[in-house]
Structure formats: C-alpha cells, structure tokens
Design goal:
Blueprint (H helix, E strand, L loop, with lengths): L5 H12 L2 E4 H9 L3 H7 L1 H19 L3 E4 L10 H8 L3 E4 L2 H11 L12 H19 L4 E4 L5 H10 L1
Parallel strand pairs: 1-2, 3-4
Helix pairs in contact: 2-4, 3-4, 6-7
C-alpha cells in the first residue's frame, strides 16, 4: 500500500543483505522519462501496467539477487503476483490504514500530487477500498509483516522464521 515504507525498508533490507535495491516505480519513471502521473494522464493505466510488468520481468532477469520495491498495484496485474512468488520471496508490509493515511498526509501534495483536494476521511476511505481490492493478492506473499512502525530488523526476523 502507498505509505507502507516499501522503498525505505527495501533499501535498508538490500543493504543488510548485500543486494542491489530497485524501486519499480522509479525504474518506470526512468524508462519513460516522465512521471507516473504523466504516464497515467497521457498514455493511460493499461500502458503503465504493461510497462510495470515488462520492467518487473527485466529487472528480475538482470538482477537475480536484489530487493525490489513494487508499487502497491503491481501484484494485481498481468499475473505479476504469480511471477513474483515463483521468482523470489514476497514480503507484504501490512500497515494499518490510519497510519498509512497519516503518512501520506504528512508527505503532502508536493510528493503525492494525487492527494490534492482529498480530505483526510476521503483518503482513509480510498485506502480502505484499495486494500479491499488488493488484499487477496497481498495475502499470497510468503511473509506478512504487520505493524504501525515496521523496522528492517522486524522484516529480517520474519524472513529467518519463514
């Protein structure tokens, strides 16, 4: 989910494991030389989701030992969840909705322009609806780490228990 800490925890985890780190959204931005908002606006969600699936497969092929932070929607399209489950260990950072909403509101419009003109309650409602749709995909992850303030140490403990 947005605001769960995928990129932050992913970078820390990659460092601890001695792996490369990639953020799939950043790779999409680099490959398209434009923002995700612009991709959605000018080329549409179908184009974005196909680009996401293509880069997911390319990165996985090019970097067999890496930590990859995907956007929250990535597992839900183009059989990406099955692909990821077969290629590596998937970790779902299960952060409470109210914590996600507060983090996103704290980041503000400059970082997440899609939050413009969204009330805190609308944001919570949007996140709840999004989680309801995505949860069946997220729950397939090999490891589920729950908490309001997940640390890389917590993720490593869950990985070693798996």
């Amino acid at each position: 989910m947005p605001g769960a800490g995928k990129s932050t925890i992913g970078q820390q985890l990659a460092h601890k494991l001695g792996y490369s780190f990639f953020d799939l959204d950043q790779e999409i931005i680099a490959a398209n030389a434009t923002s995700i908002t612009d991709i959605f606006s000018h080329k549409g969600e179908d184009y974005f989701r196909q680009s996401e699936a293509d880069l997911l497969r390319k990165l996985t092929g090019d970097h067999p030992t890496m930590v990859l932070a995907t956007g929250g929607g990535a597992p839900c399209f183009h059989q990406n969840e099955k692909f990821m489950l077969a290629k590596g260990r998937c970790i779902f950072l299960d952060v409470p909705i109210k914590v996600l909403a507060q983090r996103l509101l704290d980041e503000g419009q400059a970082i997440r322009p899609l939050l413009k003109d969204v009330s805190p309650q609308q944001l919570v409602n949007n996140l709840e609806q999004t989680l309801k749709i995505r949860n069946p995909y997220f729950r397939q992850a090999h490891i589920v780490v729950k908490g309001a303030d997940i640390s890389v140490q917590q993720v490593l403990r869950e990985m070693s228990a798996d």
